């Protein structure tokens, strides 16, 4: 089922279109000290290889702001400079070629300083993200207490008021190359904040659940929050915030978009959970197949949209996964390769992964031929 996207005005961050009819883009943020140019560039290259569309770097000081120029010279995706408190950092980063600036309304409040950032952004023809979070309002986010629900309602409304207040300041100065984020660490409140903001403006949204945590919990929280909003048509670019390797953020973000059928990044691997009928180590088989797909590198891109099924037994395998383009139903010491539910051939356990890959490539050649 096609999701009806919220109508938003289009903007661009470097070469990447955001909003309008543009695909939902995947962002991440480096975990290095930005002034360490070599380490930062190395991490961005890893993110590029993983399929990241846009990268953000922290700019807490002048050395970091000055590093933007050197970093930009050696990367291939748009770069956003994350600015807090000191507007001069934004000015230096923009001179260095930053493709967008992120500002927090709670940390940069002086109108004359905001005006300088606006003027520089206009001069360099770049966009600005108004990044609202719990620290953007003059109140403590309520986590407990008898009136917690009512207090959170009021807090969300304060966030929206602060975002609109900042937004109107930009609009009065004829600057509308803007996108907005409304992040909280609580999934339900994050969803509600974006829903309400969607009713009062048509700017594109950057989605995320902030401070989501370690990879397992963070991926779940992000999938729930980001996924719920995307299913409502809300959201134009996303970041999965994880305490860990930023490459994992990109991988999770891509999976969210692919599983919602909003974008396709490669073949989709599905597998049964395994049970007492399985006579093979299905977990090991799935891990080996996933590793092999990653190793295929560019060839994997040629298999975009293909559904691959790995099933733990020959009893239900082809039937349960008959909508898969290709798959294996594994038995004791051997397996059956099937395409669209029909058996193709039998292979030994040691041959399963490579035989599957070869049959996948045959499918791809016929499709492209």
Please explain how this structure is put together.
The chain has 369 residues and is α/β, with parallel strands linked by helices. 42% of the residues lie in helices and 18% in strands. It is built from 12 helices and 15 strands. The strands form 3 sheets. It has an 8-stranded parallel sheet. Strands 11-12-13-14-15 form a 5-stranded mixed sheet, covered by helices on one side. A two-stranded antiparallel sheet has the order 1-2. Helix 1 (37-50) links the parallel strand 3 (25-29) and strand 4. Helix 1 (37-50) runs parallel beside helix 8 (246-259). The model has no long low-confidence stretch (mean pLDDT 90).
If you average the pLDDT, what whole number results? 90
Widest sheet: strand ordering: 8-7-6-5-4-3-10-9
Give me the number of helical elements. 12
Order of helices and strands: EEEHEHEHEHEHEHEHEHEHHEHEEEH
- Termini separation (Å)? 29 Å
Helix content: 40-55%
Biggest β-sheet strands, sense, barrel: 8 strands, parallel
What does the secondary structure layout of this molecule look like, with pairings?
Elements: E1 11-13, E2 16-18, E3 25-29, H1 37-50, E4 54-58, H2 62-72, E5 79-83, H3 87-95, E6 100-103, H4 111-124, E7 127-132, H5 148-172, E8 178-182, H6 187-198, E9 206-207, H7 215-231, E10 237-239, H8 246-259, E11 268-271, H9 282-295, H10 298-301, E12 307-311, H11 317-320, E13 326-330, E14 334-339, E15 342-348, H12 352-368
Parallel strand pairs: 3-4, 3-10, 4-5, 5-6, 6-7, 7-8, 9-10, 11-12, 12-13
Antiparallel strand pairs: 1-2, 13-14, 14-15
